[in-house]
Amino acid sequence: MGNVALDEKIPNNVNLSGDRKLQKALESWQPNFIDWWMDMGPEGFQQDQIYLRTAVSVERGGWAHFDYVKMPDYRWGIFLAPAEQDRTIHFGDEIGRPVWDKVPGDARKELRRIIVTQGDTEPASVEQQRLLGNCAPSLYDLRNLFQVNVEEGRHLWAMVYLLHSFFGRDGREEAEDMLVRRSGNVDSPRILGAFNKPIDDWLAFFCFTMFTDRDGKYQLAALAESGFDALARTTQFMLTEEAHHLFVGETGLRRVVQRSCELMNEHGGEVREHGGIPLDILQKYINEWYSASLDLFGAEDSSNAASYFARGLKGRFKENSKRYDDHLALEGSYSVERLENGRIVSNEIPLRRAMNLVLRDAYVEDCERALLRWNRILENHNVDFQLSLPSDRFNRHQGLFAGQPFNCQGELLSQEAYDAIRDQLLPTEADLNYVRSCMVRVTEPGKFANWIAPPRKGINNQPLDFFYAKFDEHVRA
Ligand SMILES: [Fe+2]
Ligand SMILES: [Fe+2]
User: Does residue 9 fall inside a structural domain?
Assistant: First the structure.
């Protein structure tokens, strides 16, 4: 284990050639994956040269190799973080026992469900984003989109590896189904709500990578604590890639705020006439994507979450750190709000039952940090507007506040009152159309669409006017 085999059909550091049966099974899944990628991957760019990083090892600093590649030739590989000697389970009822190198029989169903649910999000996001290349605001952004896409493809590989190697025939069937479901398809949708929402413009893409991918970070972080060692090590390595996706989202939105501020300062407050994104529309996008992402954390009070924790399957964010002094979580309680007879009441529930909420609260803190940064840009430009996260009761489709007409401040309204202000809270058809009208394709190196500021620096220390993608016309030039 640990040796990297880069020249095999499937690059890996799991000694795949030492397990012929597994290798054959994965090699027969591979062409189906490529077919799916050609059908559902980025439309219109499959033959272009994109400046991408590829994982080639898991060593710190050394794992990312940058070069031009055509996306269908990307080397999707299977990489696990290095095994830790004598690692033990560090939370839940089996604390102190050795981690499992096989799936325990009585946790098989749960682990399969966890892995399938995580795995399903990866191809889903590629499907959601497949048309965005056609209106990319720069070559830099285009390249970032495709980097995210190929890595989501690799994350699917990561989960499929676990299914194939630990779950026998059921696992292989689940792996097939990953390529059958389709984002937004009525008959065969992806498993989770936010992964069936259309992403038709770059503002939605940045909100997705900021808020929805960030849910992914917290889910992966919780699984990186798992007592099932292969899952923990797989997700640990996924997290290193995920960091770039979150960077794309957070800095993308920051550049939108920056540009809108510049336009407002130049033109006396008006951005719409000058092709920028109005801040109220940005706020509505935030409201929509943030609330949809909160739904992904599941029920606030959850017996499943309690048993995942008890069983050592899924920990808290940074469970194995000084953040917590009690890793049993048998004592203690957590306060959960719910609606009772039209009023919000706060209940204490046993801590283990609140694990979804505990994870979500860490996520919310992380989102708030980004909001503070964006608001600092507004202040620095003397723009009298503050962006904010809506209340966690707003626009929910899962959990204790699902389907209730709360406003962004968390006040319960009548349905009529909510309907009357709905268009001030969430994007309208007109907002979406306006944003779409801003989405022009820019292909000249170093140039950026009018609605977004350039980033502070390029990728992998390359200049901003670097050829982050080469199309036929560039190659000829
Ligand atoms: Fe991912
Ligand atoms: Fe991601």
Answer: no
Q: Who surrounds ion ligand 2 at CB < 5 A?
A: 213, 242, 245
How far does the centroid of ligand 2 lie from the alpha carbon of residue 157, in Å? Answer: 13
Instruction: Give how far Cα 396 sits from Cα of 193, 215, 283, Å.
Output: 11, 15, 17
**1 within domain boundaries:** no
Digit-coded pLDDT (tens) for 65-93: 999 999 999 999 999 999 999 999 999 99
Nearest-angstrom CA–CA distance, 341 and 286: 30
Number of domains the chain is built from: 1
Q: Classify residue 3: in a domain, yes or no.
A: no
Is the pLDDT at 296 greater than 90? The verdict is: yes
CATH number of 319's domain: 1.10.620.20
- Measured in Å, residue 475 CA sits from the centre of ligand 2 at 30
Lowest-confidence pick of 28-32, 149-153, 265-269, 301-305 = 265-269
Distance (angstroms) between ligand 2 centre and the Cα of 213 equals 5
Compute the CA torsion angle 186, 191, 197, 199 (nearest 10 deg): -110
Ligand 2 centre to CA of 279 (Å) is: 26
Tokens of 443: 């292909």
Establish if 5 belongs to a structural domain.
Answer: no
Q: Domain span at residue 85?
A: 16-476
